[in-house]
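Priority: low. Protein: Phosphomannomutase. Input follows.
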Amino acid sequence: MNTILEKAQLWLTDTFDSETQQEIQNLIDNDQDQLADRFYKNMEFGTGGMRGVMGAGINRINKYTLGKATQGLSNYLIKTFPNKDLKVAIAFDCRHNSKSFGKLVADVLSANGIKVFLFEDLRATPELSFSVKHLGCDAGIVLTASHNPPEYNGYKVYWADGGQIVPPQDGDIINEVNNLDFSEIKFNANEDLIEIIGEKVDNAFIDASVKNGTFSATKGRDDLKIVFTSLHGTSITAIPNAFEKAGYTDVNIVEEQRVPNGDFPTVASPNPEEPAALKMATDLAEKINADIVIGTDPDCDRLGIAVRDLEGNMKLLNGNQTMCLMTNFLINNWKQEGKLNGKQFVGSTIVSTNLVNEIADSYGVETKVGLTGFKWIAKMVREAEGKQDFIGGGEESFGYMVGDFVRDKDAVTATLLACEIAAQAKAKGSSMYKELLQIYVDNNMYKEHLIAIVKKGMDGAEQIAQMMVDLRENPVAQIDGSNVTYVYDYDASTKTNLISGKVESIDVPKSNVLIYHTEDGTKVAARPSGTEPKIKFYFSVKEELCCIEKAKEVEASLDTKIQRIIAEMKLN
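Result:
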């Protein structure tokens, strides 16, 4: 195997431009640690595609790693669909270099004889998913790093149905990429094959979002006071238009965060999962007495929601709570319209709350559970076409998908859905938060918590790998005094009953995830991130809730339980 230095020296050849050569030579001369981090592995596809820090090197996002990925995709498309006039749609977000990377990717595709639809400027990721089907494309690409820090960028590939690539396509494309030399990338564009798209597709997408995200009862839209922030991202190109077309008139935008900016200057992290990211929005909500706050991540596929609790204070809902509210609302709407006939399903993921399963089961609706990432929910939809109707699906990381017109998490339509729930609740004298508490009363009160431990670089990757090894070799037998009944090892594809010792196989693709289930309904999952240098631990506990008035008391009990588990596992 080539050493790191040998790998780096290949980037000093004429295949690479002078600026890249100079950057690598400087690292060889002055920064061996940085050089090692850039060349110890190739940039890989994870749960959200290829995502990483920008810069020269095989473990970075740059002209050559993106070019190689696109050349590999081009080769795969040409082999898979010989003699076909191939078409690919491309979108990009507000990040540094996203626009130039988008054109670069278009150049490579067109150089391979593939027709390209390239958005004129930044657009929301769900619009790319929509446009793939809308324009009859064979694939789609979006340049984005979601909520990662400003130094990151990324590359996600979509298939003809608008969903992200899954096995076997992802593996086959990676094989094509890995079999390429950088010198084989075709960078010389055929401009005749690049068509710039914009307003016409925008209008079709917004119309479809409004159709799927609004419902027959219009009462309350005028009376709902909304605060919205795009967190310097792409949603500003879509969500205000969607609000207007849907009939929401009292929309208050956080002006300081309106302008797209890849530095995300007003937040430490543009991640709607974090309360700090939505502070300017919640401050505005308090000032104007708004009912609901909605903030989206930079590429507009995830959303954070804050609503007023029983005391009237703004409270940030977590992704599990949001998906439970949305799933319950959608299924109930299907029921009221007389459309439930036993052939419907909702989608969820292995680290999301089991409350979704309970809600769906109470209506006689199936819950399909897949691996982390919306590409697996899109795969469920694809495989069920013609047999079952997809109602909606979500995951704990603040993403939701309404219907199947977009085959990825979609903050545009989900924003409209959240406002429909809030508006209808307000119109009947309730609130979005009370609706959530009623779901807990009708089922069980669940509380979830996530810990993400950051381990950067080559050493960090080794530490994360060792943590998973330790968990597998020393399985937990009890969690907070409750016996572990099942251990799901998605890497070994096994489900082990710790009481009987019986081992069953799991029929899902392999993934480096461990999940413990206990007798009292506690669930603890460990999962290295596929797109960030983190290992994540997910905790879910539950308890019966007899009435809304007891909610604070039961929630406090569940919070205390989670903290005991974290201390027991020495993760604090």
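Residues 41 and 59 are 6 Å apart (CA to CA). The domain at 41-197 is CATH 3.40.120.10 (Alpha-D-Glucose-1,6-Bisphosphate; Chain A, domain 3).
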